[in-house]
Amino acid sequence: MLRSIRSQIKSLLYPFYEWRIIKDLDFSKTPRHIGVTLDGNRRWAKQNPDSTDPYGHKRGAAKIADLLGWCEETQVEVVTLWMLSTDNFKRSPEEVATLIGVISEIVDDLAARKRWSIKAVGALDILPQPLAEKLASLPGCADSKLQVNVAIGYGGRREIVDAVRGFLVQEAEAGHTLAEAAATIDADAIARNLYTAGQPDPELLIRTSGEQRLGGFLLWQSALSEYYFCEAYWPDFRRVDFLRALRDYSRRRRRLGA
Prior knowledge:
Largest sheet: 6 strands, parallel
Shape: globular
Mean pLDDT: 91
Strand order of the largest sheet: 3-4-2-1-5-6
Structural class: alpha/beta
CATH class: Alpha Beta
């Protein structure tokens, strides 16, 4: 009973708290690109044994559209969502199949809204063919003010390997020798072949569930990023948690490697 009353009080106070945070935010310091690791679905499911969602993936999926709306409200231009890592394929076949099915539904839902430009970033060749084909033909949205990258089959090391491979293929097609390619490769050449080529690097990376590690997310692009680790599991991630991350970011003095 007491716990229920406390929960009701919090739900009444949160809108005012959110308003206070927004009021204090400096939107000139809003990050253009935010990366989010959607972590904690399985642990959420373990804490909610009565749920019909054994892995928490469906509950987490329902939160994604909310997050994209919050990004729009706060003038974020690009958001990258890490939804499936290359390491996730080490999980049980049953969970991987469930996760693949949920991700397919998420992509269908986001595309059907015709509200955001959606781009798949990841190694499509390791995904089931139906999902890979769907991700390879995602429609654009000319009126979108938010670019949404869905990182599926994504691994930071794999992305860098693919970028170097892409550069070497381009050099070979241009008739250059390996020695000539080695003489011209530089950071810009690799950046032009990343999955996120042409986009700004993320200024802020958010990871839910309390884990304080990158896990290989946007390894190249995050060299100068700020990190924010949130205790909430992804299915429980709230607008106030997102606003706290932006507030924390806006208060930091970014040295950008200096």
